[in-house]
Design a protein that fits this description.
two-stranded antiparallel sheet; alpha+beta; single chain; disordered N terminus; 397 residues; four-stranded antiparallel sheet; Chitinase A, domain 3; flat; disordered C terminus
């Protein structure tokens, strides 16, 4: 069923989501990012409003390719889209600032970047606007990234390309293909490189915090019992169909099939479904809930190699042939034990990450020159801010 795949995605994303939520939520100007992150850390039982909002974010690519198939999302992948919209906003500001100031961090200049009715807009104007719009939360994210990399070095740990590729593969499996994953990513103004960078930070959090997590055998068994109904593979059928516009056409084709005509050949010649006719009408395997109710009922009632009667749906008139079947399979505890342990560890890492990151910031020496009003660590005022204000206050008394 679908829920275990949702959980895989949750665990694959949670660490970096939490980290971004910790840093970005501090800035009032990052309201869009905060909203997206709040959605991600909500309870797993999503409301109807969440379902409606998320479905609107899905790309056209997830809509049904075949007549008779209902539009559906591949295991709610838009959770990724919602989360990374906030992340991409921060990174987009960062990338634009870099483009304006140069990769070596040089200051913006008075070079003219636009002229409006004779009035100039300079690089300096653009830079200051970008910093005001999102520079503070972008810098806050970079500070957290730097702290993570320092902790990794202290622990003698590293994130390898293989680590990132493994997590990327999980996302591709969740979305069905690399192309579909990248479609969601691009819809939200991101790139593959940006997403891989965020995966890198997720893995850093997991490597740093996982050794502090203990998951008992009893806890794993309890988790299995609570979720085993979602872990199996449901019954599936593989079917081919021929779709035509009128019942008379369908009757004529059905008569030919009963006289021994080849189903695939007739599908290529006469079916009006562009998504399947070139494959001889083949729709591949599908489970319950994937097709129109009338189509599904007829298909699951057929035995292998059996023809249906004429089936009417809103798309027209179908003749269905089941070519294969897969019975439902429920995995045993031993088969799922290692995977469930990993999920539980990831859940604990996610739970701990907010407090751990805040404690890490508190014990570090951070001088934020872009946001001097933000107090530095260990109760000391940031350079050029509260300390200077206190001094000036004393002089005025």
């Amino acid at each position: 069923m679908k829920e275990p795949e949702d959980k895989k995605l949750d665990e694959s994303l949670t660490e970096a989501d939490k980290e971004e939520g910790t840093t970005e939520a501090k800035e009032e100007s990052a309201e869009t990012a905060e909203t997206a992150l709040d959605d991600d850390v909500s309870d797993k039982d999503e409301s109807d409003e969440d379902e409606r909002r998320e479905s609107e974010e899905l790309p056209d690519a997830v809509l049904a390719d075949h007549a008779g198939q209902e539009p559906q999302a591949p295991n709610k992948p838009n959770r990724l889209a919602a989360v990374w919209m906030g992340v991409s906003f921060v990174l987009l500001v960062l990338l634009i600032v870099i483009a304006v100031t140069g990769p070596l961090g040089g200051k913006a200049s008075n070079e003219v970047v636009a002229v409006v009715n004779g009035e100039e807009i300079t690089k300096n104007d653009l830079y200051n606007t970008l910093v005001d719009a999102g520079g503070k939360q972008t810098l806050d994210s970079l500070i957290t990234e730097k702290l993570l990399s320092q902790e990794m070095a202290k622990a003698g740990l590293a994130v390898t390309d293989a680590d990132i590729d493994q997590e990327w593969q999980k996302l591709e499996e969740q979305y069905g293909s690399k192309e579909q994953l990248l479609s969601i990513v691009e819809q939200n103004g991101m790139t593959e490189d940006i997403l891989r960078k965020q995966i890198h930070h997720q893995i850093e959090l997991r490597k740093l915090l996982a050794p502090t997590v203990e998951v008992t055998e009893d806890k794993i068994k309890e988790y299995y019992e609570q979720n085993k109904e979602y872990m199996g593979t449901p019954e599936q059928v593989r079917a081919s169909h021929i779709l035509v516009a009128t019942e008379k056409e369908a009757e004529e084709i059905l008569a030919e099939l009963k006289q021994g005509a080849d189903f695939a050949t007739l599908a290529k010649e006469k079916s009006t479904d562009p998504g399947s006719k070139e494959n001889g009408g083949d729709l591949n395997f599908f489970g319950r809930g994937a097709m129109m109710p009338e189509f599904e009922e007829a298909a699951f009632a057929l035995k292998k190699d059996e023809l249906s009667d004429i089936v009417k749906t809103t798309y027209g008139f179908h003749i269905i042939k089941v070519t294969d079947r897969k019975e439902a399979v429920s995995p045993s505890y031993e088969e799922k034990k290692d995977e469930l342990k990993e999920q539980l560890v990831n859940n604990e890492v996610y739970t701990k990450s907010t407090t751990w990151l805040q404690e890490l910031r508190d014990k570090s020496t951070i001088d934020n020159k872009l946001n001097p009003e933000q107090p530095s660590t260990q109760g000391q005022p940031a350079e050029g801010s509260n300390k200077d204000e206190a001094a000036n206050s004393g002089k005025n008394k």
